[in-house]
Design brief:
Largest sheet: none
Radius of gyration: 38 Å
Strand content: under 5%
Order of helices and strands: HHHHHHHHH
Number of helices: 9
Structural class: mainly alpha
Length: 252
């Protein structure tokens, strides 16, 4: 419609790119550019001046030149940029949703491998899920599950790292605390294990899962960790006492 109105006023024009055919905006050289006013409007054509315009001819020409310096369709470019940005945001959201769906699929595959005691394959599946969604809504679950596979592979230090990362993403996720406690237990870091197990039970109780099978396992490991910690502290106390007594004896 706009093109038809312009064609009726200015005659037919070339639809080519800017500057095609030797004209401006695609107009042939013998036709008037639409940005120039008509002569009979009273506005300038060359050095002509509107009778009510108090500016000098040079000022008017400077203003016209400054206006002509604006990129063609500058306003349209801004609108197009906004529209493009919105389209890209929608596209990014759709891509993120697809990645999250694929990550959940890989987590399910990892769970199947864990049930089949295929721990290396489970580890690989959870790692793939994390690559697809490293900081997504379920990333703490992927990390916690991968920690479980690492525990089964007896890679306790790596399991502790994943469990801590899961806790950092979701501080109230009880399973991550329990798996951290188990990793620290096998690393003989009993004080940390006791703390992690207690956090796991506390958050499981807050979630209403205190009576579940996981809680029973956590309590059992918590009791073992406390016993190990008590023995460890007793050995250290005896060592300090022996060192202290040996020092006094050597000085007598």
């Amino acid at each position: 419609m706009i093109a038809a109105e312009m064609q009726g006023r200015y005659g037919s024009y070339n639809d080519g790119a800017l500057g095609s055919g030797g004209g401006t905006m695609g107009y042939p050289p013998h036709q008037r550019r639409p940005m120039e006013p008509e002569d009979d409007d009273g506005y300038y054509d060359g050095d002509r001046q509107h009778p009510d315009d108090e500016r000098g001819g040079d000022e008017i020409m400077d203003a016209a030149l400054n206006e002509s310096d604006r990129p063609p369709n500058a306003g349209d470019d801004d609108a197009n940029t906004t529209a493009t940005g919105a389209d890209e945001a929608v596209l990014d959201l759709a891509e993120l949703e697809q990645l999250q769906e694929e990550a959940e699929r890989m987590k399910g595959l990892g769970n199947k491998h864990m049930a089949a005691q295929e721990y290396t394959r489970a580890y690989n599946a959870y790692s793939a899920a994390l690559q697809l969604s490293p900081v997504g809504p379920s990333s703490h679950v992927f990390l916690s599950n991968r920690a479980a596979s690492l525990l089964s592979l007896k890679r306790y230090s790596a399991a502790a790292v994943d469990a801590r990362r899961a806790v950092a993403l979701a501080p109230t996720f009880g399973k991550a605390h329990a798996r951290l406690g188990q990793a620290l237990y096998f690393l003989k870091q009993y004080a940390g294990a006791v703390e992690a197990y207690e956090d796991a039970l506390r958050f499981e109780e807050e979630d209403g899962n205190a009576g579940g099978g996981n809680s029973a396992v956590t309590r059992a490991y918590l009791q073992k960790a406390k016993e190990k910690l008590a023995k460890q502290e007793e050995r250290e106390r005896r060592k300090r006492a022996a060192a202290s007594g040996g020092g006094h004896g050597g000085g007598a």
